[in-house]
Amino acid sequence: MELRISKQELQELVDEAYSKYKDNKEGKNADYIPYLSRVNSSLFGIAVTLCDGDTLTAGDCDYHFGIESVSKVMTAILVLKQYGAETIMHMIGADATGMPFNSILAILLEKSHPSTPLVNAGAIAAVSMVQPVGNSKQKWQNIQENIDDLCGSETAIIDELYKSESVTNFNNRAIAWLLKSYSRIYDDPDVALDLYTRQCSLGITAKQLSVCAATIANNGINPVTGKRIFNASLAPRIVSMMSAVGFYEHSGNWMFTSGLPAKTGVGGGIMGVLPGTFGIAAYAPRLDEAGNSVRAQKALRYIMNKLGANVFSDRIITFKNHKEPVTY
Ligand code: GLN
């Protein structure tokens, strides 16, 4: 079942979603990280990047917000690249926990591996695996370079956020050391925790997140820069992880109602991937009780439902004035 639309029509739909939810005041900013509680809650942006590299936007798409847990996807890609899917499956896993992102109980229940690189435990384990193990400076360079490559432009740490998060991340410290007791952390736990906190403190825009999502949708080739960032065989692996746990304990409901594999962050960003079609991102700081942005999820769900697009359906979206996708 094919839906053929023009980019203009998609732009109109993005604008419609923006106006529909712009004034929604549900939820509240994350407050367990003091910096996030002070961010202007009225910010809101939606960006879609197609597989030919064109980006459509509405609202605040150039504002740099804390990437937070969306960065877990990028670093999962990095370790998948460095170790291969089989090793990541064995050392971390790809299961949904069905529990909050920072759950200690999830670690206790699943001693043999931290479940998935898309919750805190697995993400800290993933950071600990980043090569070269034991060289934190080079590890950080590799983590940031990978994120910049996926986004097609540079990112920078929001210093105030990094400080704010570093002095309040007691729960994550407990996670890092609990992983150590199960031999499920593969570098110094304090170093892994610091690098994880740094990656969560990177400033990112909705536009950059949509380009990163489009790189995944485009099987590893960044459609804006034309650079291959990861092997095409990894794309379905990462999309499956996003579907399983991208909205934490609400992942099932999210997939059921939107059909969009996506990953949220407590900074208010969400990044979604519709393979072969587009990458989509939205940003709004107010969160629901599971830590997922309220307006961002409403906007993305609205766009997906209006298009009738769904990763589980046979609907194919094609664009009337599409440029040739970047391929080798
Ligand atoms: N840095 C945050 C934390 O570890 C990220 C959580 C999130 O975005 N869900 O608590």
What would your notes on this structure say?
- This protein is of the alpha+beta class.
- The chain has two domains: 2-64 and 205-320, Beta-lactamase, CATH 3.40.710; 69-200, Beta-lactamase (3-Layer(aba) Sandwich).
- 45% of the residues lie in helices and 12% in strands.
- The chain is built from 14 helices and ten strands.
- The strands form three sheets. A five-stranded antiparallel beta sheet has the order 3-2-9-8-7.
- A hairpin with a 3-residue loop joins strand 8 (269-274) and strand 9 (278-283).
- Helix 1 runs antiparallel to helix 14 (294-307) and helix 3 crosses helix 6.
- The longest helix is centred in the middle third of the chain and has 16 residues, at 136-151.
- The chain is globular and about 55 Å long.
- The mean pLDDT is 95.
- Glutamine binds next to loops.
- Residues 68-69, 101-102, 120, 165, 172, 200, 265-266, 291 line the site of glutamine.
